[in-house]
Specification:
Length: 294
């Protein structure tokens, strides 16, 4: 049995077919990140679902004035970002406390004496590869711990039928029922919603961190202090996505993604979903402070 507070299942996975000719558009998560040893990938193969991947080697980047970066300029941009990552790794080994990641990036810029054009290129690289990846601005990320997470190896893949095709089957589902109490008794767990009461041998609670922190759910017995302290230390960023369809495409035909440089550019990363959706479509991403400002 699955109890869901909203009118749909899926959480961060939100596949809509109401926007573009009944085709699946992902309002939430977009890809399966990493296929190796990923349990989601086994469901893809078991259900014989077709997937497609972004050809990252086709990336095109435009400067703030619309000028496309040359192949040599893109190579320099990538090399500069690699140098930054090496600098951050070395700098982390020397840190005793912690500092915002943005401070360390500024330190790198100062030591390398980067000019305005080089700074724009580096800012774009950090935005798409770090800020958008971690859904947070560099000024709010830990300089010491920003990339200590682990992920699955392998490329990223979009499920052509929609990510909701991966949902488990065969479960009873209760929608529009917010859980208000979870009570552990000697031989069972009692779950109380705003509409009903359920009894089970075990419960897996997957509510968002914001709900846990708000204490809208009463736990009996109460969560211990160590769990509350851990929740208090945890945070999360903000990632926004925009889906735009057009009568005809005005961007290059041979690229799956492109970027736009410049501090005033809210949407710095765009993906071409024309082939997947059958209509000229771009999907843009932004994160952190820029996402909050929208």
């Amino acid at each position: 049995l699955i109890i869901e507070a909203s009118s749909r299942v899926g959480g961060r996975v939100h596949t809509s077919r109401d926007l573009i000719n009944g085709k699946p558009v992902e309002f939430g998560a977009s890809w399966i990140h990493g296929a190796q040893n990923n349990p989601l990938w086994s469901r893809v193969t078991d259900r014989m679902l077709k997937t497609t991947s972004v050809r990252k080697e086709t990336e095109v980047v435009f400067d703030f004035n619309g000028e496309e970066l040359t192949v040599a300029a893109l190579a320099n941009k990538d090399r500069q970002f690699s140098d930054l990552l090496a600098f951050l790794e070395k700098r982390r080994g020397l840190m005793t406390g912690d500092r915002p990641l943005q401070d360390l990036v500024e330190e790198f810029i100062a030591t390398r004496k980067l000019n305005a054009r080089e700074r724009r290129r580096l800012a774009h690289s950090t935005e798409v590869a770090i800020a958008n990846e971690y859904a947070e601005s560099l000024s709010r990320l830990s300089g010491k711990n920003w990339n200590v997470d682990e992920g699955f190896q392998g490329g990223d893949a979009s499920v052509i039928a929609g990510l909701d095709a991966l949902f488990p089957r065969g479960y009873r589902i209760r929608l529009n029922q917010a859980v208000v109490k979870i009570e552990h008794r000697e031989d069972l767990v009692v779950v109380t919603t705003d509409r009903d009461t359920y009894r089970a041998k075990a419960v897996i609670c997957t509510v968002p961190l914001t709900v846990l922190k708000s204490e809208r759910i009463e736990f009996v017995p109460p969560l211990d202090d160590s769990r509350k302290a851990a929740m208090g230390r945890l945070g999360f960023g903000k990632l926004e996505k925009i889906v735009l369809s057009f009568p005809k495409r005005f961007w290059p035909n041979d690229t799956d993604l492109f970027g736009v440089m410049g501090d005033d550019k809210v949407w710095s990363e765009w993906f071409d979903y024309t082939e997947l959706l059958g209509v000229p479509t771009l999907i843009g991403f932004t994160a952190g402070l820029k996402a909050e400002a929208i």
